[in-house]
Amino acid sequence: MGYFMDVQQTKITLDLTGQICPWPVINTNKELKKLNSDEILEVFVDHMPSTLNIPASAKKDGHLVVDSTSNGDGVYKITIQKK
Fold this sequence. Notes:
The structure is a single chain. By secondary structure, the chain is α+β, with helices and mostly antiparallel strands. It has a single domain (2-81), classed as TusA-like domain (Translation Initiation Factor IF3, 2-Layer Sandwich), CATH 3.30.110.40. The protein is built from 2 helices and 5 strands. A 5-stranded mixed β-sheet has the order 1-2-3-5-4, covered by helices on one side. Strand 1 and strand 2 form a beta hairpin.
């Protein structure tokens, strides 16, 4: 699991490639709890169910799913704004 912070944009990047559900959802939720309101979390996953489960969990907790895209290589980026 990689963890990077871009201080200028208050954006956290969480690399969860190689993990299968439920771990990407669990790790995303743990990271969101650490963030302040309006900070951005970018999550990278390569497990297809995670592309549905992470946004569903984030929305259920009241966060904004800004974007979910694929790079065409089987890796998806889910961008979440903490609320």
